[in-house]
Design a protein that fits this description.
Blueprint: E1 18-19, E2 24-26, E3 30-32, E4 42-44, E5 58-63, E6 69-77, E7 81-82, E8 84-92, E9 101-104, E10 109-111, E11 120-123, E12 130-136, E13 151-159, E14 168-179, H1 183-193
Parallel strand pairs: 1-7, 3-8, 10-14
Antiparallel strand pairs: 2-4, 5-6, 6-8, 9-11, 12-13, 13-14
């Protein structure tokens, strides 16, 4: 202190970005898959952040926010703020719709040929696998193997859960018959044709 000393000594110090504190709250915590991105509105629980601006003080990213599962929204501090706050939300599988799969059954009337006759299914992406069972008309026992013997068969189809859509329990899809003519029937048909 004057008069004993004179001059100045510069000193430096650093102001660090403040880490974001508290958490974020989402306005919606679950969605149903529809093929679109889901970006729920959100807010800071820390009321002192009401003046913060996106693109200046923070940015927002969404991950895994299209397909069913757990999605995440993350608020990353920038500029005068650092650290990140995140929250998760759920995207549920959608219900299976008729237009997402098609079933082809064997012809309704099949002359016995010793070959197996099966139903087939074509499914859209994200739909589970289709499983067919066959039941002799009037009976309750189901057959997983494809029919090839004589009989009237009811066809049931079950669709498993897929990546994007829930499945369906087994339900009736249609029926077909496998028949065999004996010699006298062939003679009668031949005579009728003639």
């Amino acid at each position: 202190i004057f008069p004993y000393t004179i001059g100045r000594k510069p000193c430096t110090f650093q102001i660090n970005p403040a880490p974001l504190s508290g958490s974020i709250e989402l306005t919606t915590s679950s969605y149903v898959y529809d093929g679109q991105q889901h970006c729920p509105d959100w807010s800071f629980t820390n009321e002192s952040y009401s003046h913060l601006e996106e693109g200046v003080d923070y940015n927002v990213t969404y991950t895994d926010n299209i397909k069913p599962g757990t999605a995440t929204v993350t608020v990353n501090g920038m500029g005068n703020h650092t650290a990140a706050l995140s929250q998760t939300f759920l995207i549920d599988k959608a219900q299976l719709r008729e237009e997402l799969f098609s079933i082809v059954l064997p012809e309704e009337d099949i002359s016995y040929d010793g070959k197996e006759h099966k139903a087939t299914a074509t499914v859209s992406d994200g739909v589970g696998e289709a499983f067919f069972t066959y039941t002799l008309h009037g009976e309750t026992a189901s057959l997983a193997e494809m029919p090839k013997e004589e009989g009237n068969y009811d066809v049931y189809v079950e669709i498993a859960d897929g990546e994007l859509y829930y499945g369906r329990a087994a339900e009736y899809a249609g029926s077909f018959s496998i028949y065999k003519f004996d010699e006298s029937e062939w003679q009668s048909l031949d005579a009728l044709f003639a």
